[in-house]
């Protein structure tokens, strides 16, 4: 008997790639209001952002 197809997890949370370390990270409750602005997986990566990544104005 073939295994049943995988279903998406109940908690199908969005993911992003950290611009500093390049690793994917998952939505967190603390980011629910700023998720569109979140670009780093952690405070460490935020502080270690490359200088070339200058904020555009
Ligand atoms: Zn990171």
How many strand elements?
2
Which percent range fits the helix content? Answer: under 10%
Order of SSEs: EEH
**Helix/strand/pairing class, anyone?**
little secondary structure
Shape: elongated
Terminus-to-terminus distance: 59 Å
Order of strands across the main sheet:
1-2
Uncertain ranges: none
Bound molecules: zinc ion
* H/I helix tally: 1
Cα gyration radius (Å) = 16 Å
Summary keywords:
single chain, 57 residues, little secondary structure, two-stranded antiparallel sheet, 11% strand, binds zinc ion
Describe the secondary structure blueprint for this structure.
Layout: E1 15-17, E2 24-26, H1 43-47
Antiparallel strand pairs: 1-2
Explain what this protein looks like in three dimensions:
This protein starts with 14 loop residues before the first strand and ends in a 10-residue tail after the last helix. The longest helix is centred in the last third of the chain and has 5 residues. About 10% of the residues lie in helices and about 10% in strands. The chain has one helix and two strands; from the N terminus they run ββα. The chain is elongated and about 55 Å long. A hairpin with a 6-residue loop joins strand 1 and strand 2. The chain has a domain of about 35 residues. A two-stranded antiparallel sheet has the order 1-2. The relative contact order is 0.20. With about 55 residues, it is low in regular secondary structure. Bound molecules: zinc ion. Zinc ion (ZN) binds next to loops.
